[in-house]
Amino acid sequence: MSSDLLQGSCHCGAVRFEVRAPVEPAARCNCSLCRRKGALMTPAFPASQLHLLSGEGDLACYQFNTRVARHYFCRHCGIYTFHETRTAPGMWRANIGCLEGIDPYAMTASVADGQRLSVVEDA
């Protein structure tokens, strides 16, 4: 499980970041938000390993349910880039589809049971 320095961006390129994190084991989540966005995520990594290179003002944050997790996306193209986790605040995951040189369709992924953590019915 290598922790290479990876470059990432949203679709339109307004948000650019780098992260030092492994990409495997990749994961999906079955909570209501993740089911809808369908992203493949890196394993969790410490906040210190994520560096925003550009686009801080282009990011929007979405919180729901317990309002602990913070999901960031580009205000222009709508692409989810990364989020701070609910189960381990201070730990982050990045959208593997945003990372340069990584083919998310060539990876297998586990599914985290985020639905079980919901305090709101059908969330």
Low-confidence stretches: none
Query: On the 0-100 scale, what is the average pLDDT?
Result: 89
| Share of helix, binned | under 10%
CATH level 1 name: Mainly Beta
Instruction: Tell me the number of helical segments per DSSP (H or I, 4 or more residues long).
Output: 1
Overall tally of structural domains = 1
Radius of gyration: 14 Å
**Structural class, from secondary structure content?**
mainly beta
Largest sheet, order of strands side by side?
4-9-8-7-6
Tell me the number of strands: 10
| Main sheet: strands, sense, barrel | 5 strands, antiparallel
Assign the CATH architecture: Beta Complex
* Element pattern in H and E: EEEHEEEEEEE
Shape call: globular
Proportion in β-strands: 25-35%
From the N-terminal CA to the C-terminal CA, the straight-line distance is 32 Å
Stated plainly, the CATH topology is called: Metal Binding Protein, Guanine Nucleotide Exchange Factor, Chain A
What this model shows, in words?
By secondary structure, this protein is mainly beta. The protein has one domain (4-117): Metal Binding Protein, Guanine Nucleotide Exchange Factor, Chain A. The protein contains 1 helix and 10 strands, in the order E-E-E-H-E-E-E-E-E-E-E. It has one helix at residues 32-37, and strands spanning 5-9, 16-20, 26-29, 45-46, 50-54, 59-62, 70-74, 80-84, 91-94, 109-112. It has a 5-stranded antiparallel sheet with strand order 4-9-8-7-6, with no helix packed on it. It has a 3-stranded antiparallel sheet with strand order 1-2-5, with no helix packed on it. A two-stranded parallel sheet has the order 3-10. A hairpin with a 6-residue loop joins strand 8 (80-84) and strand 9 (91-94). The N and C termini lie far apart (32 Å). The model has no long low-confidence stretch (mean pLDDT 89).
